Amino acid sequence: MRAQNRSILPAVLVALSSLGGCAATGGDDGLPAVTEDGLVRIDSQKVDAVYWTEGATLASYDAVMLIDTPVAFRKNWMRDYNASRMSLSDRADEKDMERIRAELGQAFREVFTEALTEAGYKVVNEPGHNVLTLRPAIVDLDVSAPDLQSASIMRTYTADAGEMTLYMELFDAATGSKIGQVIDRESAIDSGRIEYTNRVTNRAEANRILGKWSDLLTEALDEAHGKP
User: Residue 217: which of 169, 155, 156 has the closest Cα?
Assistant: First the structure.
């Protein structure tokens, strides 16, 4: 599953690039009013962009199937991060990036599973009727101070933990038809002062952002089901 999802990333990045480069835009952000596969952009005050299939609804879905989440760093992230590190032992490498990808992907599953379960929706592993499939990807991940697997004792101080973009597609699991897609860029809270940043604080900020996204999904499902 993970290998399959890593292969999805190039397609996701191409999709984001084509969204940004389309001439028929739906707003000042340069995103189009209609995607190449015919989804129409609808107004949203909560995320950067929502595209939807005309007439589609979430009312029939009482279960969700989560596809594993591929993660892609911001272009040249490792080069830029290492440029400010004097010691070789304090520099990030591919193993660090792979660990962060795996941890963030796992965090996505844990946070969304908990939110959906608490809201009364089943999280399943197989497609079926009344099952909504989520195909998420996190792109442009920018970690300000990664907690590296280094033998040296190093503390990093930053004003925030970084930022990342969610690109998530929604499908009807039984038919495979695409219902919608969501794009949203979120940044860690800027405290306004320089603070010690490590894996614990990074995970807390990641969970906060993931929690926002999972809450928006459960709210959308609740609204479609007519829940108060």
Answer: 169
